[in-house]
Amino acid sequence: MMNIKRVISSIERKYIADNLKKEERNDGRGLWDYREYNINANTIESAEGSADVTLGDTRIITGLKYEVGTPFPDLPNEGVCTVMAELLPLASPLFERGPPNEQSIELARVVDRGIRHADCVQTEKLCIREKEAVYILFIDMYVINHGGNLIDCGGVSALTTLISSHVPEGKLNDNDQLEWTGNYLNGKVIVNELPLVLTYGKIDDVIFLDPNLSEELVSDGRISISVTEEKVTSIQKSGAATFSMDEVKMLANKSMEIGKKLRKDLDLWQYLFEK
Amino acid sequence: MEEEQEVEDFEEEGEVTREIVVPGETLTEDVKNFYPGRGAIFNKEKTKIISLSIGLKQVRKNYMNVIPLRGFYTPRAGDKILGVVIDKNPVKYKLDINAKDLGMLKPKNTITRDKRSMGRGGRGGGRGRPGDRNSSNELSTARFNIGDVLIVKVLSADRLNSPELTTVGKYLGKKMGGSVISIGPQSIPRVIGRSGSMIKLLKNLTNCTIFVTQNGRIWIKGESIETERLLIEAINKIANEAHTVGLTDRIQEFLETELKKRGLK
Amino acid sequence: MPLVIKDEYPEKLFREDGKRLDGRDKLELRPIKMEVGVLNNADGSAYLEWGNNKIFAAVYGPREVHPHHLAKPDRGILRVFYRMTTFSVFERKRPAPGRREKEISMIIADCLEPVLFLELYPGTSFEVFIEVIDADGGTRCASTTVAALALADAGIPMKSLVTSLAIGKIDGELVVDLSGIEDKAGEADLPCAITWYNDQLSLLQFDGDMTLEEMNLSLDLAKNALKEIYEKQLNALKSKYIAIQEETLKQQENSTSGGEE
After folding, report:
1. Which chain B residue's Cα is nearest to A25?
2. CA angle B258, B261, B264 (to 5 degrees)
3. How far is it, in rounded angstroms, from Cα C27 to Cα A19?
4. DSSP state, A6?
5. Which one of B72, B84, B93 makes the best mutation probe of the A interface by having the most chain A beta carbons within 10 Å?
6. Alpha-carbon span C229 to C191, nearest angstrom
7. Prediction ipTM score
8. Which range of residues forms the domain containing residue C193?
9. What pLDDT digit, counting tens, does each position of A81-123 carry?
10. Searching chain A, which residue's CA lies closest to the CA of residue C135?
11. What is the CATH number of domain A11-271?
C-alpha cells in the first residue's frame, strides 16, 4: 500500500473503506486479528525495568525508574506509579518535537487508567514508612516507530516493564537513613493483575481491531477497552465517530474474549526478573 | 486502453560492477584516465575519485558513476510524477509530491481544451483547439478536491521556488480507484527495466494498469484486490533487490509461481 | 531521599591483572554493533550499541524549515537534536532537554556539517534526531557515529562518513574509549571525530589534566581506533545489500534461469 508517512489520498481511503466492507484489510488480516507482538524485556541497563515492544511496525520502548519520596496526603501508606509518554520525531514525520501534546498525553493517560483501575500495581507494597517514605515509580514510554495503534502497544510495553522490574528494596535504619537491603522488589511483588487494552477503529460503520497506520489515518474514530481476566476496567472513545450501545456491548464482550487469548499467547510472566 | 509509459533506458553501455560503495569511498585513483560522473567527485587533492552516496559503482566510458541505492526526489522540468492534493485555495492547488516543497498547480494548467473531452469527465488532458474553454472551470479550483491523486508533469522547478505542475498532457490527470504505492525514487528505473522489459513483464503477467512516476510513486489498478496485492509485493521485491543481477527473471518466476499458488488467473 | 545503591567512585580504575574494570586492555574498544534502516518512517535511520550505550538516530531532509524564519536563502540548514530518555541514566533524568543536551546537539551539528553540501539545498532543512535510550560514557561520540550512518542511509550526498571516539586518562594511563565510570572517575577526557575525506578533526573537546605529550599521543591513539570504528560503519551500510546479493545469487544457482536482466 502507499507508503503513508504523512499524506493520505482519497484513493487510499476508498481502498481501505471499500475493502473493509468486504471484511478485507490492506495487510490481509481479518477484522478481529492483531498484528504480531514482539517483546524484549530488560534490555536497558540503566533502568530498573524495561520493555522493547513492537506491534506490527509500531515500536515503543518503555523504562522504569524509581525515586523515594513522600506519599500523597490522602494515601499515606501507598506508593505512586505514574505513566508518561513521548512521541519521538524519530517515529514519524507526523510527530513534532517539543513538550507532550494532546496525542502523547492521551496515550499516557489511557495506558495509565488501564493499569490503575485494574489494581495492577500493588501500591501498598511500595510503602517504606507510612506518611514519610514511599516508592514513586516512573513508567516512561517512548514511541520509536509509528505504525498505528500506539495505545495497545504502549499498554503491553508498560505492563511488561512493570513485570520485568527490579527495584532495590530499601529500609530505614535506626538513624532514619535509607539503606538497601540487598534485595529487589520485582514484578511478583509489584504486579497483581494483567490488564490488556484493545483498540478498535471505525470507518463507515465497519469496526475492526488494531488499526495499522493507514487505517488509523483514515478512521472516523476509535475506542479502546481495557480488560482483565474478569472484567472491563476502562474504556476510552476518541475521534468523531459514534458507536451504538449494541456495538459497545459487542466490543466489550469481544475484548474479554480476545484479551484472554492474547494474555495466554503473550505469557507476560516469562519476563519476570529473578535474581 | 493500453497506457504506455515513456521509458528511459536505465542502463545503456557501461558496466555496472555490482560493487556497493559508500560516501567517501574511493572509486579509482587513476585520475588521468577517469572523470567523476553522476554521484561522484574528486577528493580535495584531486588524487582520487570518490563516491557521494551509498550505491552501485558504474564505469561508463571514462566516467565513474554511482547509481544511488537510497535517495530522495528532486523535481526537474519534464518529470511525470504522482501528487496528492493536500490544500487548495481559489487560485491554486497544492500537492504533496514527495519532495521538499509542495508542488503548485494553477487552474490554467488543468484546463481541457477539447470540447469533445468535456463529456468524458474526471481526466484532464486531451488534444485541443485554443479558444474552446469551459469558462466556469477556467480560473477556479473546483475541478479537484483535497485527497485527489493526480498524475502531473513538472513544468518548471528550480532550487528556490516551488515546482509548477500541469495536468494537461497525455495520461495526466486525476486517477480514480486502484492503489498507490511508494518506493524510493532511485528504484523507479528498475521497475521500468531496460527498454521497459520489467514493466511489460509486470503488466502482462498481472493484467494490471501500471503508471510508474519519477517521484517514486506508482499507481496500479487490477482486476481484484488479490492481484493488486501480488503486484505490490512484486514491486517491493524489485525495490529491495534493485542492486542484484538476474532480477527480471526472478520476478517472472516469482509472479508465475504466486499466480498459480494463489489461484489467480 | 535517595536510595544509594550504586557505588561512589571506585578507588582504582585498573584491576590487579592490569586490565580495566570491564576487562579491557588500554587500547581496546568496547563491543560495537551497528544497523541502518531500522525506522521506516524517517528518511534515513540507524541504531548503535556501543558497550552499554544504545542509541537511535533518524534523519529527515531535505524538507521545509519550521519555523520559517530560520531558513537560509543561499543554503540548507542542519539541525541536530540530541536527547536522552529518562531511564537512560542511573538517576532518572527530567524529560525536558537540558543545557547539556543542547550543547551536545550543537557540537554534533558542527561536526557533521563539513561533510554535507548544504549550499546545494537552499531554503531547506536537514534534521537529525538522536535518542539515547541507555547511556554509559561517550554518548556524544557514539551519537555522532550513528548520526553519520543515518545521513548516509537517507541518501544525502556526503563527502565522506564521520567517525567519533573519546580518548582519556585514567589512573595516569592513556586509554581508548572511556566507559561511564572511567569518564566520571578519570583524570581527562578527549572526545574527537574525524571526517575521512580530508582526514581532519571536526569534533574536538577536552576536559581534565594532561601534558602536551599526552595530548599528542592521544590524538595518535585516536586515529587508529577511529579506523577500527570506521570499518564497522562501512560494514553496517553495505552488509544489508551484500546479503541480498548473496541470497539472490544462491537462489539463481538453485533455479534454472539464465541470469541477466
Report:
1. B225
2. 80
3. 60
4. S
5. B84
6. 14
7. 0.94
8. 32-245
9. 999 999 999 999 999 999 999 999 999 999 999 999 889 999 9
10. A46
11. 3.30.230.70
